[in-house]
Each structure stands twice: as C-alpha cells, then as structure tokens.
Amino acid sequence: MRPSLLIPALGLLCAATAAQADDDRPEHFEGERSETLEEAFENLREYNAKLHAIIERDQLTAAEMSEIHQLSYTLENALERIEDEVEDLAEVLEEVHVASEEMDRETVRKQAPAYLTGSESLYSR
User: Fold this and answer.
1) Cβ-based neighbour number of residue 2 at 10 Å
2) What is the dihedral angle through the alpha carbons of 40, 43, 44, 47, rounded to the nearest 10 degrees?
3) pTM higher than 0.85 for the full model?
4) CB atoms < 10 A from the CB of 94, how many?
5) What is the 3-state secondary structure (H, E, C) of 42-102?
6) 20 to 30 Å CA-CA from 57: which of 10, 102, 104, 117?
7) How far apart are alpha carbons 81 and 83 in whole angstroms?
8) In sequence order, what are the residues at sequence separation of 6 or more whose Cβ sits closer than 8 angstroms to the Cβ of residue 105?
C-alpha cells in the first residue's frame, strides 16, 4: 500500500475498532504489546497469519472464535503502534512542507532526513 493511502486506511480501521467497543463484550485480553514499529510489523505478520489459518477452515468452532477474539487484541495493539508512528511521521512531513514554502532551508535539511528514514521503515518491510 502506498504510504499516502496508509494514513486514511489506518484511521478508518482504528475508528471501526473504536466503534465496536462495548461494555457488554466478552472477556478482554491484553494481547502482545508493540513497543516499537518493528515489533508492530512483526506482530501484524505473525497474527495475521494465525487469523488467516483459522478462517480458512470450513467451520469456525467456539474455541476458534475465542482464539480469534484473543489474537485480535495483539493485532489492534500493532495497528495502534503503526498509527502512532504514521501520525508522528505526518507531523514531520508537515514541518518539511511548511519550511519549503517559507524557504526555511535549515528546517528542511534537518527534518527531511528524519521523514525519509521514518517513511522508508514503513515500506521497506
């Protein structure tokens, strides 16, 4: 997915997740934390693979539904970490954008490399 499409897509996904929040939901789990962007992408890969394996089965048992419920917490944590990183990256890019309009070369030279490093970490996976 192009980085320019990643921000709106993540926003919609997080909004949908938040909209489903309800106090009457079954037992809650903490899920694996994603402390870094690297951990977030690793958890996303690993737990997406688990989810994919489960939903490929003909019938989804109660135990499998419970397993999906539990692993969704880790996926939500990973997406939250990615969203936080993308939001921070968008702020840095905005600094570059405004500095370029104002001919502020010092800020562009300082912030553009930070933006590039961060954005490359999103699509180099």
Assistant:
1) 8
2) -160
3) no
4) 12
5) HHHHHHHHHHHHHHCCCCCCHHHHHHHHHHHHHHHHHHHHHHHHHHHHHHHHHHHHHHHHC
6) 10
7) 5
8) 99
Give the span between the Cα atoms of 99 and 77, in whole angstroms.
Answer: 33
Rounded CA gap, 17 and 14, in Å? 5
- For residue 116, the one-letter residue type is L
SS3 30: coil
